[in-house]
Structures are given as structure tokens and as C-alpha cells.
Amino acid sequence: MLLETPQSHDHPSLTGGSGYHLRLAGTAADVLAARRLRFEVFAADGGAMPGPPGADAEALDADEFDADEFDDRCDHLIVWHRTDAGPPQAVATCRLLPPHSNDAEPRGAGLSTDREFGLMPLEHVLDSTVEVGRAGVRADHRAGPAVSMLWAGVARYLHLTGYRYLLGSAPMDLRDGGSNAASFWDLALTRFLAPAERRCRPRDPISIGGLERAATPQVPAVLAHLMRLGGKICGPPGYDEILGTAAFLVLLDTQAADPRQVRRLLGHDG
User: Could you give the percent of the chain with pLDDT greater than 70?
Assistant: First the structure.
């Protein structure tokens, strides 16, 4: 889904310090930039995408990109970074699939998360749910404002479209044998677990029980932002065959979200 006027005041467009700017993709070239960034991030992070683990942008084929059949029905948020050295570069992205672009029956069958989880326990809320997916931030921008700006864009998208829920599958690296994912699952059980009626079964479960636990779970930035907002983990992790990672299904109810965090992301002080 391409929006004809991505910089309109009706769309989540944000400008930050240090040369950062966020907007919805408005052209096919914008979407291609997001797809290439996703490929770069997923390959560099050592998932199942082609490319050597730890590769940087110059090590990857410029013609390679990440894409699937859901992309054409999604809005694509992109954080751009401009320096004096050249044109703006896409440094963070995610895609958003609103329910008005999903005519599947049942509605869960039209979501990419349906590949990893049985979504029937959530079917009754999917009419009001935006699916967020394929979130990626270039490694050299994860310590800056790019992650916060991306989530500010997601928050504004929900605010402007009026949808209540955000659903997504958050990946977690398995190259440590799964100890970090197991440790995060223990944390989720005590602090972030969704109510029983909203828990979904993974289609390809990961055997968490016998895994060694990391002393302290290292939570990826994208997942950490969702947890701070009030996101809930909808059951144990599954295996994401495409990325080669653990996948945690997360549901955020904006009506139950931390109001301070929401106001901060929306830029409101009251």
C-alpha cells in the first residue's frame, strides 16, 4: 500500500535531531529501500536470510532484498538519516498491515504471524488490530534515536487510524543455543504474560524447558520498546524458519498501554 502524500499532516511524519526523519513510504523506490534495509539487517544479524553473519551493507549484493506476499498490502514506515556525505539512507523500518487491507476469512489467516502461531484466540480483536512486522534497525543506528523514532511513528499510526491493538512477532537470536530466549520466557511468565484467553500456540514450538538460562536476558530494542509500552507475550516462543530465530507473539492494547510512554511517543505532554 503506497500513500500518495506521505508527508501530509494526516500521516505519521516526524523530524528528529542529528539528521533523522521518519515518514511512510510514498513511492516504489521507498519500499525497495525498506526491503533492502531489511535484507541487510536480517543477514547481518545472522538469521536464515542470505548473506554472511556480521556482514555490512557493502558486503551484500545491492540487488538483494527481503520481500514476501504481504508487502503489497502494508504501509511501510521508514526512518531516514541524512549526513553531509550524501543522500538520506534508510536506517530503520517496519511494515504495518491494517485490518482494512486484510479481507481474509478468518482474518488471522491474512496475517504473516499466522505462519508461526495459531491466532484463533485473538480472532475477536483482529478487526481492530494492526499487524507490525519485519522491523529492522541498522546496527550502527541502534544506540541513537532511530528506534524511538520508529516506535513514535507506529504510535502515531495507531492514533491516526483509530485502531486499538498492535500485534507482532518479535524475533530473538538462537545462536547462543536458545539460552537468552529461555531466560526472556521466564521473565515473561512473571511480568509480561497475556491472559489465558489470549494465548496462542506456536506452530513449531521451541523446547524451552531443558535449555540453559542466561543470567540476565538481553532483550532486543524493538521488543523492549513494546514491553515498556505494555505489550503482552501471547504464549511460548515458536521457531521462525525464515529468520532462523525464536519468535515471541506480542499483543499491545493501546487502551491498557502505559499512558506516560504513549504521550512521550506521540509528543504530547498531557
Answer: 84
Tell me the one-letter amino acid at 130: V
Alpha helices in 54-136 (DSSP H): none
Residue 236's domain spans which residues? 14-266
Q: What pLDDT band is residue 46 in, cutting at 50, 70 and 90? A: low
41, containing H or E segment: helix 28-44
Round to whole Å and give the CA distance between 264 and 214. 32
pLDDT at position 2, please? 38
Q: Is residue 9 part of a domain?
A: no
- The CATH number assigned to the domain holding 64 equals 3.40.630.30
Is residue 138 very low, low, confident or very high in pLDDT (cuts 50, 70, 90)?
very high
Could you tell me which residues come within 8 angstroms of residue 20 by beta carbon, excluding any fewer than 6 positions away?
79, 80, 81, 91, 144, 145, 146, 149
CA separation for the pair 245, 137 (Å, rounded): 16
Please name the residue that has the C-alpha cell 503489497. Answer: 72
- Spatial distance between the Cα atoms of 258 and 73, rounded to a whole number of angstroms: 30
* CA neighbor of 149 nearest in space, from 214, 79, 84, 233: 79
In this structure, is residue 227 part of a structural domain? yes
